[in-house]
Design goal:
heterotrimer, A alpha/beta (about 425), B mainly alpha (about 300), C mainly alpha (about 290), B: about 300 residues, mainly alpha, MetI-like fold, 2 domains, about 0% strand, flat, C: about 290 residues, 13 helices, transmembrane helix (chain B), transport (chain B), membrane (chain B)
C-alpha cells in the first residue's frame, strides 16, 4: 500500500518536474532503400538523432513507391499510421481528404517556408491553405543526355527543337548508331511522352492537356502531332527496348552504343557512379522546347493524435528536411537540386546549376510545370489512364488519331 | 535406395526384350532428365555468375557470360552491408524474422490441415463435402483482395505489425492447401482400417495418432515444402502487415533490389536473392531425403 | 454417451477452420463485393453508388487484354505444367541413380523469389544479351528468339517462366502419387504381360485422380495469382500486352488509388474462377463420394 503511494507520488513529481519536454520520435515510411538514395535519407536520420530524436525506419521499396503505398493503406486501416510518409504531388491532397494528415503550419511559418520555396512547389505542400508536407528536392524530368564523343564525331549539337532532334537522329542512324536509348516500361514511355508534349505544344498546351485535362486540348491536332512524333521516336529506338531498365539505357549511352537518352536527372547518378564527367564524357541539356518539368519528393505528416513525442518528432523532422544544411547534403547525394532558392550551389555540378537557373527563370513565366509521368500533375487514376494509352500506342501500330480518341475516352472514363 | 517392396513398372520388369534396346532406352531417359535439369538450372547459372562479377564487368560486358574475374565481395555486401533503408546491415537481421514467421506458420497449418484432411477423408458427415468445397474455393481468393479487410481485422485484434499477426494470416490462407493435400492422401487409405479400429474401441484421436500419422510422412513433406515456400517467399503480406523490426527477408530483399532512381548493383542483387532462398533450398534438400524415407515407411504398410 | 461424443468430435475439429474460412474468405469476398459498388478511391468508402465501376471496367481496353491473357496464360500454364510434371515424375520413377540430385534441381525454382529470378530470365530471354545473342554467336546469324520484346509473343515468356517455376512441385506431387500405387497390382499386370505404357495409362494414372485434383488446384491458384512473375519479367509490357487481372487489380488498388475499380475487377476475376473451378470440383468430389 504505502509503496504504491510512494511510486504514484514520485511519478506525479516526475511529471511536474519535466512538464513539457517531449522526446521527438518518428516512424518514417519511405522507399529510398539502396545506394545513394539510402545514404541521402540516412543523413536526415543522423541530423534527427543529433537533435535528440528517436528515428524508426520503415523502408519499403518497389514500383516507384507502389509497395510503400500498399503498406501505408494497411497501416492506416489497422489504425496505426506511420508518423511521416514519403508522399508526393496530388497524392498528398488525396490523403488529406481522407482526414489522416496533420497540420504543420506552425513549423512552416516559423521557418518562413513561404519565402524560400518557389510558389508552384509550395502549393503542392498545402492542404486547404495550411501546410501538410515538407519538400525534399527538385528533380528535373525533361533532360536529354548525350554521349559527348559520339556527338562530336558526328558533328551534332544538342538539339533545341524536335525537328533538330529528328535530323540529328537520322544522321546517327545512317552512321549505324542507335540514336535514342530507351527502356520500354510504361513510366519511361510516359516520361518521353510528356517531354514531347511540352516541346511541341509549349507550356500552355502542356498545362491544359496534362494538368487541367482539357478535353479540347487532349483531342487537338497538336496532340495528334505529339503522337506522330512518338511514332517517329519509336523508329530511333533499337528493337530490344521493351522492358529494359532505365539504367541499362543509360549504360548504352555511356558505352557508346546509343547517342541520347531522355530521362530525369537521376540518370546523372549513373554516369557519375561510372566515373564519367559532365561536359567531358556526357552532356546534359533540357529536352527540345521551352519549360521545366519538376518531380518533387516530399514527406507528409500523418495525424498521430495528441501523442506529444510523435508530434514533436513531426515538427523536428519537417524543420530539418527544409533546412539548408540537409537540402545541400541530400541533393548532392541524389543528383537533384535543393527546393529552396537560397541554398548555395557552389558544390553542385554544371547540370545541377543549369537546372536551378532554369527553374528560377521558368518559375517567372509560367513554364515551371509538374511532371505527369512522375505523379506530380494528376491523381493516380487519370494519370494511369493516360499512361495506358501512351504505352499502348508506343508499343503497337496504333495510329495517332486512334490514340487521341482513346486518350479522350480513357480520361473521360477516369473522371 | 533401400526400397525393396516397391516396384516401378519399367525398372522392375524382367523383360525378354533385347538388352541393347534397354540400354538405349535408359540412355535416352538419362539424356532427357539431364536436358531438363539444364533448363531448370539456367537462371541459377546466370544468377551465380552475375553474383561473382564486379559491377564494372557487368556494366561493360555481356550479362550472361562467365565472369572474367571472380569476386565474393557482392556476397559479403548482400549478407551484412547492403542498405535496406537507412540501416545498412544486409539481409542478416531479417532472416530471423522470416524464420519465426515461417516455422510456426508451417507447423500450425500442417497440423490443422492433417486433422481436417483426416475428417474429410475418413469421418464424413452430412455437409462435409460442402465445407470441403468452400475451403477449396477459398484457395483461389486473390491475396490483393484480402489485404485491406485483413489490415482492419488485424487492427481490431491488436495484431497489426506483429509476428503473431503474420503467422495468423499465413496459417489461414494456407489451410485450404494443407487440408487438400492430406484429404487426398488419406482418401487412398482403406476405410475398413478405421472401421476395424472403431470396433476395437479406438477413438478419433487415437486412430489419427497411431494409424494415420505414421503413414503420413510423404504428404507431410509435400505440405511442409508447399507451406514453407509460400510463407518464406511471401512479399505481399509481409510488406503490408509487418512493422519496423518485424519485416521478413523478402521485404529486405525487395528493398535491396528495387532502387527507384539509384544505381543498380546487379551482382549484390543476385547474391541477395540466392542468400534469401538458402533456407528454402535447404528444406528441399533435406525434405527430399525424407521423401524417400517416407516412401520406404509407406511401402511397409502394403 | 461416448458414441455421441464420437459423432461430434469431427465437427468440432473442423469448426475453427470453418469459422476462419467464413470470415477471412467469404466475409472478405462480401466486403469486396460491397466496395465494388462504391466510389472508393485511395481508401474504402461505404456509400453504395451502383454498378458504375463495372461499366467502366468493361469499357477499359486494358482489362480485355488482361482477361484474354488470363485464359491464354492460365490454360497453357496449367496444361504444360501438368504434362511436364507427370512426365518427369514417370521418368524419375525408373530407378534413376541420381534421383535425389535431379529431383532437387527440378524443385529448386520454387524456392527462389521471382523478384530477382525475373531479372535473370529477362536477361536470358533478351535478344540482345541472352539466348538469341548466344546462338547467333555460334554462327547461326539468322536465329531469332525475340518473344520477350514482341507484344504478340511476350505472354508466352510468362508461360515459360511460370512452368519453369512450378512444374517441379507438380512433379513432386505426382512422384508421391506414383509411389503410393499398390505394387502388387502392377506386378500382377506385368505377369499378365500387359505392356508398360498400358499399365501407366490404364492403371496407374487413373488411380491418381486425387493427385490431379491437388495439382490442378495448386496450379490454378498460381495462375490466377501470378503477379510477381509478370512484374519481374515484363512489368506488364510491351505496352500492357502481358497484363493479367491480378496485376491490373493491384495497379488500380494501390498505384492508381481506385479501390472501387479494383474491387470490381476482383469480383469479375472470382466469378470467372468460380465458373471454371466449381464444375471441376463438383465432378471430382461427386465421383469420390459415390
Amino acid at each position: 500500500m504505502t509503496i504504491k503511494h510512494v511510486i504514484a507520488a514520485s511519478s506525479a513529481m516526475a511529471l511536474l518536474a519535466f512538464p513539457a519536454v517531449a522526446e521527438p520520435t518518428a516512424e518514417v515510411l519511405h522507399w529510398w532503400t539502396s545506394g545513394g538514395e539510402a545514404k541521402s535519407v540516412a543523413v536526415l536520420q543522423e541530423q534527427f538523432k543529433e537533435r535528440g530524436g528517436v528515428w524508426t525506419d520503415m523502408p519499403v521499396a518497389g514500383g516507384g513507391g507502389d509497395a510503400a503505398m500498399t503498406a501505408l493503406r494497411a497501416r492506416v486501416l489497422s489504425g496505426n499510421p506511420p508518423t511521416a510518409v514519403q508522399l508526393k504531388g496530388p497524392a498528398i491532397q488525396e490523403w488529406y481528404e481522407e482526414g489522416v494528415l496533420a497540420d504543420i503550419s506552425d513549423v512552416a511559418e516559423e521557418q518562413h517556408w513561404g519565402d524560400v520555396l518557389p510558389a508552384q512547389i509550395a502549393e503542392h505542400m498545402k492542404c486547404d491553405g495550411h501546410w501538410c508536407a515538407a519538400p525534399v528536392n527538385v528533380h528535373r524530368v525533361n533532360w536529354i543526355w548525350g554521349n559527348k564523343k559520339i556527338l562530336d564525331d558526328n558533328g551534332i549539337a544538342m538539339p533545341t527543337t524536335w525537328e533538330e532532334f529528328n535530323a540529328a537522329a537520322e544522321k546517327l542512324k545512317a552512321a549505324g548508331i542507335t540514336p535514342l536509348a530507351h527502356g520500354g516500361q510504361a513510366w519511361q514511355d510516359a516520361t518521353v511522352f510528356e517531354t514531347v508534349v511540352l516541346g511541341m505544344g509549349g507550356p500552355e498546351f502542356y498545362q491544359k492537356a496534362l494538368v487541367d485535362l482539357d478535353m479540347d486540348a487532349l483531342g487537338s491536332d497538336t496532340m495528334i502531332k505529339v503522337f506522330d512524333e512518338m511514332r517517329v521516336l519509336r523508329g530511333f529506338v533499337d528493337e530490344n527496348y521493351p522492358g529494359r531498365d532505365w539504367n541499362l539505357a543509360t549504360a548504352m549511352v555511356m558505352n557508346g552504343e546509343a547517342a541520347f537518352q531522355i530521362m530525369g536527372d537521376w540518370a546523372k547518378g549513373e554516369f557519375l557512379a561510372a566515373g564519367k564527367k559532365p561536359g567531358v564524357d556526357f552532356t546534359c541539356a533540357a529536352t527540345p522546347g521551352h519549360g521545366f518539368l519538376y518531380n518533387v519528393d516530399s514527406f507528409a505528416m500523418f495525424d498521430v493524435g495528441d501523442d506529444a513525442d510523435k508530434v514533436a518528432g513531426q515538427k523536428l523532422l519537417a524543420e530539418l528536411i527544409v533546412a539548408p544544411s540537409f537540402q545541400e547534403t541530400f541533393n548532392l547525394n541524389k543528383g537533384s537540386i535543393p527546393v529552396r532558392t537560397d541554398v548555395s550551389l557552389d558544390k553542385f555540378d554544371d547540370c545541377a546549376k543549369l537546372s536551378s537557373k532554369d527553374m528560377n527563370a521558368d518559375a517567372k513565366d509560367g513554364s515551371l510545370l509538374p511532371s505527369y509521368a512522375h505523379g506530380m500533375a494528376l491523381r493516380g487514376e487519370p494519370a494511369g489512364a493516360i499512361t495506358d494509352v501512351v504505352t499502348a500506342h508506343f508499343n503497337s501500330d496504333m495510329t495517332s488519331e486512334e490514340a487521341v480518341k482513346q486518350l479522350q475516352d480513357a480520361v473521360a472514363n477516369a473522371m | 535406395m533401400t526400397d525393396a517392396t516397391y516396384v516401378s513398372p519399367l525398372a522392375g520388369q524382367r523383360s525378354t526384350s533385347a538388352r541393347f534396346g534397354r540400354i538405349a532406352l535408359r540412355a535416352g531417359l538419362y539424356a532427357m532428365l539431364i536436358l531438363f535439369a539444364l533448363w531448370y538450372l539456367m537462371p541459377l547459372f546466370v544468377m551465380i555468375t552475375t553474383s561473382l562479377k564486379s559491377l564494372d564487368e557487368i556494366r561493360t560486358g555481356s550479362l550472361v557470360a562467365l565472369p572474367r574475374e571472380i569476386t565474393f565481395e557482392p556476397w559479403r555486401i548482400a549478407w551484412s552491408q547492403a542498405c535496406t533503408g537507412t540501416q545498412c546491415e544486409g539481409l542478416k537481421p531479417f532472416m530471423w524474422n522470416s524464420v519465426i514467421i515461417a516455422i510456426p506458420g508451417v507447423l500450425i497449418s500442417t497440423l490443422i490441415g492433417a486433422l481436417n484432411g483426416y475428417v474429410f477423408a475418413q469421418w464424413r458427415f452430412r455437409g462435409a463435402n460442402m465445407i470441403f468445397a468452400l475451403l477449396l474455393f477459398g484457395c483461389f481468393i486473390p491475396f490483393q483482395v484480402v489485404l485491406l479487410p485483413m489490415a482492419k481485422m488485424l487492427g481490431i485484434l491488436h495484431l497489426a505489425g506483429t509476428i503473431p499477426g503474420l503467422i495468423l494470416v499465413h496459417t489461414i490462407y494456407g489451410l485450404g492447401f494443407t487440408t487438400l493435400f492430406f484429404r487426398n492422401y488419406y482418401v487412398t487409405i482403406p476405410q475398413e482400417l478405421v472401421r476395424a479400429a472403431k470396433i476395437d474401441g479406438a477413438a478419433f484421436f487415437r486412430i489419427f495418432w497411431s494409424i494415420f500419422l505414421p503413414l503420413s510422412l510423404p504428404i507431410i513433406v509435400v505440405s511442409v515444402i508447399w507451406q514453407f515456400t509460400q510463407i518464406w517467399n511471401d512479399f505481399l503480406f509481409g510488406v503490408s502487415f509487418s512493422g519496423p523490426g518485424t519485416q521478413p527477408v523478402t521485404v529486405a530483399l525487395n528493398n535491396i533490389v528495387n532502387s527507384t532512381t539509384g544505381v543498380k548493383a546487379y551482382n549484390v542483387d543476385m547474391a541477395s536473392a540466392i542468400i534469401a532462398a538458402l533456407p528454402t533450398l535447404f528444406v528441399y534438400v533435406v525434405a527430399g531425403k525424407y521423401f524417400i524415407r517416407g516412401l520406404t515407411a509407406g511401402s511397409v504398410k502394403g | 454417451m461416448s458414441n455421441l461424443l464420437e459423432r461430434w468430435v469431427p465437427k468440432v475439429v473442423l469448426a475453427p477452420t470453418f469459422v476462419a474460412v467464413l470470415i477471412f474468405v467469404y466475409g472478405f469476398i462480401g466486403w469486396t463485393a460491397w466496395i465494388s459498388l462504391t466510389k472508393s478511391k485511395i481508401m474504402p468508402r461505404y456509400e453504395i453508388d451502383g454498378f458504375d465501376q463495372y461499366t467502366k471496367l468493361f469499357a477499359t481496353p486494358r482489362w480485355d487484354t488482361a482477361m484474354n491473357n488470363l485464359y491464354l496464360f492460365g490454360g497453357l500454364f496449367i496444361v504444360i505444367s501438368m504434362v511436364l510434371g507427370l512426365m518427369l515424375a514417370i521418368f524419375l520413377d525408373q530407378k534413376i541413380r541420381t534421383e535425389g540430385v535431379i529431383r532437387t534441381i527440378y524443385l529448386y525454382p520454387m524456392a527462389l523469389s521471382m523478384i530477382v529470378t525475373g531479372t535473370a530470365w529477362k536477361w536470358i530471354l533478351n535478344p540482345q544479351h541472352g539466348i538469341e545473342a548466344m546462338v547467333q554467336g555460334w554462327g547461326f546469324a539468322g536465329f531469332r528468339f525475340d518473344w520477350l520484346v514482341n507484344p504478340d509473343m511476350a505472354i508466352y515468356t510468362i508461360v515459360l517462366a511460370g512452368v519453369w517455376q512450378s512444374s517441379g512441385f507438380v512433379m513432386a506431387l505426382f512422384l508421391a502419387g506414383l509411389r503410393s500405387v499398390d505394387g502388387e497390382i502392377i506386378k500382377a499386370a506385368q505377369v499378365d504381360g500387359i505392356p508398360n505404357w498400358r499399365i501407366y495409362t490404364a492403371i496407374i494414372i487413373p488411380s491418381m485422380a486425387p493427385i490431379f485434383l491437388s495439382a490442378f488446384i495448386v496450379l490454378s491458384h498460381l495462375a490466377i495469382k501470378s503477379f510477381d512473375l509478370v512484374v519481374a519479367l515484363t512489368g506488364g509490357g510491351p505496352g500492357y500486352a502481358t497484363d493479367l487481372p491480378a496485376t491490373y487489380m493491384y495497379a488500380m488498388a494501390f498505384s492508381r488509388g481506385n479501390l472501387g475499380q479494383a474491387a470490381s475487377s476482383a469480383m469479375i476475376m472470382m466469378a470467372v474462377v468460380f465458373a471454371i473451378v466449381v464444375p471441376y470440383l463438383y465432378s471430382e468430389l461427386r465421383a469420390k463420394h459415390d
